[in-house]
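step=encode ok
step=design start
structure_in=
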């Protein structure tokens, strides 16, 4: 099935930035046994996620339109949320296959249930933040996150994220996030932390 990319260059940068993330590793492994085919599937997944953020949340792209992005979900009503979920699952089935779809649903359903103890439906969610590895540590992450945090502060909305990568804690803490809960996710057999930021 054909797929039209919005920005394949940024999808590639996100892919390179997320190579150590257990969620994306697991999803890619289930997409195909051939590494090249699996990578192509993940590039589509990351590009689709950008389109989803642009259409229903917030999408911040690196100024050069190549080296990174942040993807955010905003609160939506129940009917819209169900429609977004339906479209995402159909995309996964069409472009990554049934095994990846099942894996995605198991992980996301588990993480959604766990997050209910520390976040509410009014929170904005930072689903993906990624910068080309060769440009990390140069302040580009701030450029991709601060514009949205300014918006959420203005409207008094809390934000949250989930990270499998403890080395990122310092970056997020400097932005005002705190560690709200650490959980073992069974499908990836990995621990992740929910980080929360109250509106300033």
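sequence_out=
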């Amino acid at each position: 099935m054909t797929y039209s990319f919005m920005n394949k260059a940024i999808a590639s940068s996100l892919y390179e930035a997320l190579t150590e993330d257990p969620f994306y590793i697991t999803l890619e492994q289930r997409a195909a046994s051939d590494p090249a085919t699996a990578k192509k599937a993940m590039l589509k997944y990351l590009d689709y996620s950008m389109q989803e953020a642009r259409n229903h949340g917030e999408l911040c792209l690196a100024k050069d339109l190549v080296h990174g992005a942040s993807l955010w979900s905003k609160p939506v009503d129940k009917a819209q949320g169900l429609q977004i979920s339906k479209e995402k699952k159909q995309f996964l089935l069409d472009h990554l296959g049934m095994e990846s779809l099942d894996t995605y649903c198991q992980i996301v359903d588990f993480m959604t249930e766990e997050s209910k103890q520390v976040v509410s439906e009014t929170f904005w969610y930072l689903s993906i933040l990624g910068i080309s590895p060769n440009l990390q540590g140069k302040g580009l992450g701030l450029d991709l996150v601060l514009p949205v945090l300014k918006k959420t502060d203005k409207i008094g909305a809390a934000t949250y994220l989930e990270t499998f990568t403890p080395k990122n804690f310092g970056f997020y803490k400097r932005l005002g996030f705190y560690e709200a809960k650490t959980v073992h996710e069974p499908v990836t057999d990995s621990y992740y932390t929910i980080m929360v930021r109250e509106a300033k």
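step=design ok
step=annotate ok -> The radius of gyration is 16 Å.
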